[in-house]
């Protein structure tokens, strides 16, 4: 076992603790107050199931980026005398939605999964759909 290996444990409150094989005390693994139910680990990777039934992944000791592409689609209504407008009817899709229109995806409401994540860049406008302007 290398000198920087970690052993992980969950207490009865769902908090994760780590013990370095070169250390002598357990340290709480800070993760924004999420209560975890189970966890598993292999070198450099720790994954857990939270009390919210979501799966969480932590990569440590590697410089491998994990990227997730977030998309939000702006929906507008064509008004013959005005052109496209953000004034939608109650039966229309959300102004900003998922691709199928079923979920509200306003850019301000899209959050990073945790403080350990960071945005890679600013939002970019894609002005084509399936290669068509």
TrEMBL record:
Sequence ranges assigned to domain Peroxin/Ferlin in this UniProt record = 65-126
Q: Which GO terms describe its cellular component?
A: membrane
InterPro entries per record: Peroxin/Ferlin (IPR006614)
SMART domains cross-referenced by the UniProt entry: DysFN
Query: Would you tell me the protein name for this molecule?
Result: Tectonin beta-propeller repeat-containing protein
Origin species: Papilio xuthus
